[in-house]
């Protein structure tokens, strides 16, 4: 199985930001900043509103909690329409039927969807990258954040991203063959592990993690597998009791990914150690601290973020080791994505696991 994966780096988590209105100097929404003049400051001053430009296309909600599918829409048709691309970015967050996150406007009385599916896409690699870049730019990402360059899953492996043999550091090809080589304990034919062990938000070991991600299935297995499951971090947070919500909001977690250095030492893999999509993403320690609960700047809704595989080798800060393990293991929810051509996901609140 080969899956093309494009991550769009974002601003630092909103929970770390003192929100203040920035002057409107570009024709895209502006967002609050960490401090005046900080190059990594997010430029959105408040939640965005879905304008309805995609409502005329056939669509349906995949579940009550997460996921919407457009079975006939070609992303290439809307690629150069900023209004529709912005609505696509917002739509991944503002569609559904729950009111628990509340607001006085109709567009806020909805559930966070987190992921949008598109079938049989004709999107080229360059267009996929352009789509990812525009999703971030049109929702206020800082100018210093670009497409992510994965430390390990990059062009240095020699895996082409298209039929012409093109190599590209900004597109990560998820290869089942290589996963079995590098991670035999997890992906080998005899591996025994729980499916829930794979839940993750992308590249959270980076100081500036992923905002949106585009997942395109290119070569699914012929017999079985190839599915991706999705969970809603918003739904997990909403199901916590008020007391546990308050506790989670007070905590931070250290996200750690030690496997890349292990693969480098065991197989001689070459790692990217500088500017992996943002100037803050450098070095080979692959360790970063993030809030356990994050607020999505597009919706203003809270999501459980310090959970899943991204903290498997990490820990919850400021508590005992046993308390950390209990908190890490607490919540697991899922939603199944069948084999499809393309998915656009908000990595601030949707957590996938791959099979």
Automatic annotation (TrEMBL):
Keywords: Dioxygenase, Iron, Metal-binding, Oxidoreductase. Its cofactor is Fe(2+). GO terms for molecular function: 2-oxoglutarate-dependent dioxygenase activity; metal ion binding. GO terms for cellular component: cytoplasm. Residues 110-335 form the TauD/TfdA-like domain. It holds the Pfam family TauD. The keyword Repeat does not apply. InterPro entries: AtsK-like (IPR051323), TauD-like_sf (IPR042098), TauD/TfdA-like (IPR003819). It comes from the Eukaryota. SUPFAM superfamilies: Clavaminate synthase-like. Belongs to the TfdA dioxygenase family. This is Podospora anserina S mat+ genomic DNA chromosome 2, supercontig 3. It comes from Podospora anserina (strain S / ATCC MYA-4624 / DSM 980 / FGSC 10383) (Pleurage anserina).
